[in-house]
Amino acid sequence: MITLVFAGNMSAERRAVFERAAAKWDRVMDTSFDPVTVEGETLRGVQIDASITPIDGPEGVLGQAGPSILFGTTGLPVKGIMQFDTADVERLEAQDRFADVILHEMAHVLGFGTLWPRKNLIVGSGSADPRFTGPASAREYALLDPEGGRFVPVANTGGAGTREAHWRELIFGDELLTGFLSGADRPLSRMSIASFEDLGYVVDYTTADPFVLPSFRQLALMGITEAVRVCDLCRMGRTTPVLLEG
User: Fold this and answer.
1) Residue 83 and residue 16: Cα distance in Å, rounded?
2) Which residue segments constitute the domains of the chain, with CATH numbers given?
3) Positive or negative torsion for Cα 209, 214, 220, 221
4) How far apart are CA 114 and CA 190, in angstroms?
5) pLDDT tens, residue by residue, 109-141
6) d(CA 43, CA 77)
7) What residues pair up with 41 in beta bridges, in sequence order?
8) What's the pTM value of the predicted model, to 2 decimals?
9) Which terminus of the chain, N or C, has less C-beta within 10 A?
């Protein structure tokens, strides 16, 4: 049960984009928990503080997103932050990409990529072939590519907020949780949903979109022709969460 707390004078249309993303993730997984008091508030599910504010103009820092407070027991988020630069949001809206960016970045608040190191779910860190070791994700990846190796390939290029925090785009193409917004559909695969089960959530696989690994030709048509490209998502900062006391 994701609760959104909006800061500033955000329009109803933009709030609705965040609300649709939260509703989507609440269908994918159970984000509720037993009541807990945090900073004087009683929370029953993940709370996300969302804002759109001037930062540094277009093509600079897109914003920051990630968990801010974690349960000391499960390591899962209690609260998180999503902040975006006004000028970049206007550009994403004009390109019809804003909704997918919000859906993608909310996944990071819930732990995708951001909590993998804490839970020791990456092997080969710093190498040319880092992999995500979650057993549920490995099972789903094996169904997509029986000869692809034991674990799921993750991003091996990009900055700190991209490398080893997304699926590898040159393999997974337009899947929602690669480090680039490629293609037009950006499906959420069973493998991505499985990664949240690996983090400790209860998930619903029936909410997944149809997904198969793209061919080389399909990757080229998506514009994925090299390992390093300009990418909006690479310009997102990540939070440093603290553990909930008590």
Assistant:
1) 16
2) 3-116+236-243 (3.40.390), 122-221 (3.90.132.10)
3) negative
4) 19
5) 999 999 999 999 999 999 999 999 999 999 999
6) 12
7) 38
8) 0.93
9) C
